Amino acid sequence: MAYVIILVTKGTNAGMTDMQRQNVSGKALAARVLGSKCFITGWLCYAGTVWILKLCVGFFFLRITEGLSQQRFVKIAMGYVLATWAAISLFLLFNCRPFHAYWQVNPNPGSKIDQFDPFSFCNFPS
User: Fold this and answer.
1) DSSP state, 114?
2) C-beta separation of 116 from 40 below 8 A
3) pLDDT at 89
4) What's the confidence (pLDDT) of residue 37?
5) Of 40, 56, 74, 101, which one is least surrounded by beta carbons within 10 A?
6) Burial class, 18, CB count within 10 angstroms (exposed 0-12 / middle 13-18 / buried 19+)
């Protein structure tokens, strides 16, 4: 809940026009930087939490299928879950280079900070 409050009250650098970026200064600039840092931290926490829960279910299925031939399918699925977690984490960490551009307000860091498409690609199938 605190994460949402920070984002709503502080804002982020995403979706700002060039004119808005030029007019931001002082406390508003610091607030936008903090909001953007919280935004990327929130995405990393979200990915970690969801994929840890998926692995918990995988370990549960491993115990259920112990000694059965179906256990190899569970192991394959868990490998896929680990691979998608690695893909999401690497995407979040390396999508925007240099990394500090995630919270850069002025000049415009570009459109890379707004792209979180791999979540839909990796989250639903796994």
Assistant:
1) G
2) no
3) 84
4) 79
5) 56
6) exposed
Residue that is written with structure tokens 């692995």 in the block: 55
Nearest to 108 by CA among 18, 34, 10: 18
pLDDT at residue 72 in the model: 94
Q: Rounded distance, CA 95 to CA 85, Å?
A: 15
CB 40 within 8 Å of CB 3: no
Instruction: Work out the percent of the chain whose per-residue pLDDT is above 70.
Output: 59
Q: Which of 78, 118, 76 is nearest to 95 (CA)?
A: 118
Q: What is the pLDDT of residue 21?
A: 65
Residue among 39, 41, 54 at smallest CA distance from 85: 54
Q: Which two tokens stand for residue 7?
A: 């984002």
Q: How many CB atoms lie within 10 A of CB 38?
A: 19
What does the pLDDT look like over 40-63, one tens digit per residue?
888 888 888 989 999 999 999 999
CA 63 to chain centre: 30
In a 13 Å sphere around the CA of 78, the CA atoms on its Cβ side amount to: 17
Q: How many residues does the chain have?
A: 126
Structure token digits, residue 78: 């868990």
